[in-house]
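All the exercises in this workshop are built on plain-text protein records. The record below serves as our worked example for the rest of this section.
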Amino acid sequence: MSKCVSNRRFIVYNFKADFKKGLLPNCITFVGVLMILPIILARRAGMFGSSLFYFVVAWFCDWADGHFARKFVMTSKIGTFLDPLTDKAFTWSILIDNWHRVPKEAAVIIMITGLLATIGRIIILIANRNPAVNIDIMAGMAGKYKTNFEKSGLVALLLADICGKYIHYEWLVDLFMFISKLGIWLSIPLAIISFLSIVMKLYKIYHEPA
């Protein structure tokens, strides 16, 4: 258990000890986020198959970090924060790189709600109003489904690139582009629900008796 410095109102947790507790899953999380650059560079070089491969590796890492954390009891507070944070960094980077091809209104909503949710998680991670209350910052089911819809939409973008370069069926390209936009738009209500869950946790922290 991480050592904590506490007073009547706050607990400030030990970052270093907590990170070591979840070292393996945290390292897997970082491997996933490191895939951002090769995904973008490969796509810009027209190596769409390689870009898709790196994307799949990143998606696997997103699953594996949580799986190993639960299996080997290596869940850490910083891990539960880094997981959704790196998901956002990943999604935002790919969205921005494909800005001319994605629904911009949806992308802006995803980014704003994601940024606000991250700020909320930082507040929860740093301080807890009542030591007796354990408020977690793990992404809920809405957040997990949101991420999968977003990534499905981005995968469809890469598949559209592959079809356009190698298969030359315009209708197939249009189909994957439609699936891409659908996945991104469907993630919007889930992004809002995920953000509201963070708001409720913040409310709980600051309205628990000290």
Notes: The chain has one domain: 4-207.
